[in-house]
Amino acid sequence: MLDIRLIREDRATVERAMALRGIPDALGPVIEADERYRNLLRESEDLRARHNQASKELGRAKEKPQQLLDGLRTMGEQSSELQRAAREAKETLDALLLELPNIPHASVPEGADAAGNVVVRTCGTPRHFDFPPLPHWDIGERLDIIDFARGVKLSGSRFYVLKGLGARLQRALISLMLDLHTKSHGYTEVYLPFMLHKECMVGSGNLPKFADNLYHDAEEDYWFVPTAEVPLTNLHRDEILDGADLPLYYAAYTPCFRREKMAAGKDTRGIKRGHQFDKVELYKYVRPEESDAELDRLVADAEDVLTHLGVPYRVVQLCTGDLGFASCKTFDLEVWAPGSNEWLEVSSCSNCWDFQARRANIRFRPDPNAKPQFPHTLNGSGLALPRVLIAVLENYQQADGSVLVPEVLDRYM
Fold it and tell me: Would the pTM of this model clear 0.85, i.e. be above it?
């Protein structure tokens, strides 16, 4: 959530930021709602002060004329009504603020959509095949490790079954990622609930904006995690952290559930896009002055998984028009899939500044006697499956139809 004081004091900067994000007229309703709220609050406070003063004067009076008593009662009723109207105006303002995305970092390239994204670097050389490389859906069916038909039978389109060595490869990749991040990169592993309260979705920025893309149990009012970023954001909701404990690094594996409403016929082959997938998430709570450097470290930690697996990848910086809702700056990691002949995103590493901390009311004290302030939060996939599994199958396929598993996975397989 953006700070309303920033909008009041530097409206032009925020308006330009919203324009860069493709919503040039977003601030109008917010400014109007804020002015209404402040006017009602001011009227309410003035009337309450007059009411209190009149009450004191009446209390000191020896005689209490009915006219004064009636006037005091009327002022009390008017004061209550103004307070109610001010509360409703504040709720309207807060609801509008929840719909505003974060402000892009000054270093983010300008662009209207994904076409404006910038390739920062490419790592590794795509393998030269002396045979036509197959896509993972053909490899999986020939090796009998991916069963598409039974996935559809169980749950419908965009579901599949991993079996035998396919299931083991998925589990091996998750174990490698968790071990690498906890043993080499300093993250604390946490096991999280996969269903959450509505407040958690609001705190992370998923609600109210993206309700249509979330799975919801209406009876119990549980929301299924679209990513571990959501529970990790809310792990310290409504807390004041000790500044001496920052930075905090967390890593978590969860399944992820998303409706993935896509155009008919898009990405229908294979397992790269589905309603359920696995992911290892990385999350950081840091001091504001350290968040830029921490984003670079986060990207490096995610890259390290791909380096260990020995697959070609590239780092892409997202432009203003392609940033995620809560992010001020994002780098995507895309892995090369030779059989599918495309780059597949396996991680988005983002700095969210204080956007999520403000929504979730997470604060820290820089020093024991200092006033609490909002930390910056960062998140990134470390990495997302099944696309990493796709990269392994397609990059390590052999002419005889087999797949040589990267050596780093041997002890897990």
Answer: yes
